[in-house]
Amino acid sequence: MNDTPDVQAVRDGREVPGERHDSGVFDAHAKSDVSDAVAVSDVHPVDEILPPGRMLVASFQHVASMYAGAVSVPIVIAVASKMSAGDTAVLMVGSLLMAGLATLLQTLGIGNFIGSRLPFVNGVSFAGVGVMLTILATEGGVQAGMPVVFGAILVSSLFGFLVSTYFSRLVKFFPPVVTGSVITLIGVSLFPVAYGWIVDPTAHSHRNDPKNIALTAATVLVMLLLQKFTAGFLKQIAMLIALVFGTLLAIPMGLADFSALKEADAFGLPSLLHWGAPSFSLAPILSMCVVMLVILTESTADMIALGKIVDRPVDEKTIARGLRADALGSAVSPFFNGFHNSAFAQNIGLVVISGVRSRFVVALSGAILVLIGLSPAAGALIAVVPMPVLAAVSLFLFGSIALSGIQMLLRADLQRGDNTLIAVVTIGVGLIPAVNGSFYASFPDWAQIVLGSGISTGCILAVSLNLLFNHLGRKASSAAAPEPALPH
After folding, report:
1. Nearest of 413, 460, 454 to residue 177 by alpha carbon
2. What letters, b where the CB count within 10 A reaches 16 and e where it falls short, cover 421-443?
3. What is the pLDDT of residues 80-135, one digit of tens each?
4. CA 257, CA 248: separation in Å to the nearest integer?
5. Which of 29, 111, 179, 480 suits 449 as a labelling partner, its CA being 20 to 30 A distant?
6. CA 97/CA 111 separation, integer angstroms
7. What does the pLDDT average to over 414-425?
8. How many CA atoms does the CB half-sphere of 404 hold within 13 Å?
9. How many CB atoms are closer than 10 A to CB 34?
10. φ, ψ for residue 311 (rounded to 5)?
């Protein structure tokens, strides 16, 4: 095998503090000496096993960055359907437990059939929130509606597992202009989520408490200073340091709540089928099957993006294995009171910022999530981190995702007017739900499933416009050939 650029540089006597790979993303992970560089010459960074201390810290960063998103869906469902505190805890524990198991499926895999084996964090998908709330309202409440919700999730997940192989063959319709537009949209559309976390959720007005803004700003400043004045391992864990700093600063500001720790048990088994056996109804199942297709679309785009970022481009087989992991994790979730699982884009941003590409780091974060799901006390400890602090670090994560998408777009031929049009329409239309959440409120429920998710709408638009301009009706003599697709 040929030497990696780092190894060759060391042998040539050149210092390599970091470099840009073909993905266009800066890798800050540097080798400590010649022997270390030579020792890993045959190990791709994705398959690298870090020293235990570094691996544990890097894993906690992934858990911290996705925790708020992982519990957001169960909280939204619980609040909207007026669940009790006990039922809300059941949903949160189930979501965290299944996020961990799904992450282990993605990173470690099963044989050569399941799992992308990329540093891919899975968690509860937002795509099905609208459908689940509609089902609960139609069925007359939580007790009757939750079995129907879980039945629809189970069937739609099995459907997703069966179609994963065929869905992955669409990868040729995801050239740089498509993936770049969608990933840029993902990053930009997540910014309002971070802004929402700055607002005090208990406030009765839309005015934000200046203390929340001050806490967010202070955490951002610490993150910037750490990125500027630290190097090596400290720079890689800058986000975790900023989270700890922000939480400690929140204590004298009165913005940290430790009350949940007092009542949390150290260990607790999940409540299996808390609302009873799944119930099956045709209309909810069909709606959830549409949601599953949306999830497969988002995960495909995320896998393509992550593959480029970690310098291991994905092919159809890798995507099929990754989609099967999504679907299998989602199929098991209802039994533990969890929902659909899919890729968490903010953790892709963390891979960019930290420069740590090891899938085993993410696998360990999956194991940590499982432990948190089995330990209410551990979940309560992480929940101590104030939302404005999480918002601060999320701004960096979401911005890194958007930047990755822009870097992909730079590799597309944007001088061709058609490609520019694809990017403009995809991003412009995809941002509508993020800017105005009620924009599609008058549309039928089935239409809101797709249109309510700007990422889903943008992905469908990008693929459709690419087909229209770069594939359909193109003459063989055309001077401008379509952009090359990803490898098969």
Report:
1. 413
2. ebbebbbebbbbbbeeeeebeee
3. 777 776 777 788 888 889 999 999 999 998 988 999 999 988 888 877 776 787 78
4. 11
5. 179
6. 22
7. 87
8. 36
9. 12
10. 65, 40
- Can you read off the two tokens belonging to residue 221? 């400043």
Q: How far is 438 from 291, CA to CA, in rounded Å?
A: 19
300: its two tokens: 């495909």
Q: What is the pTM of this model?
A: 0.67
Residue of 194, 118, 160 lying closest to 340 (CA atoms): 160
Residue 476 in tokens: 């063989």
Between CA 244 and CA 385 the distance in angstroms is 8
DSSP-assigned letters across all residues of 223-257: HHHHHHH--HHHHHTHHHHHHHHHHHHHHHHT---
Quote the tokens at residue 213: 């803004």
Residue 170 has pLDDT above 70, yes or no: yes
Q: How far apart are CA 448 and CA 443, in angstroms?
A: 6
User: What's the one-letter identity of residue 310?
Assistant: V
**Helices and strands: H and E segment counts in the chain:** 21, 4
Contact yes or no for 52/21 (Cβ under 8 A): no
Give the Cα-Cα-Cα angle 62, 342, 28 (nearest 5 degrees): 35
Q: DSSP character for 162? A: H
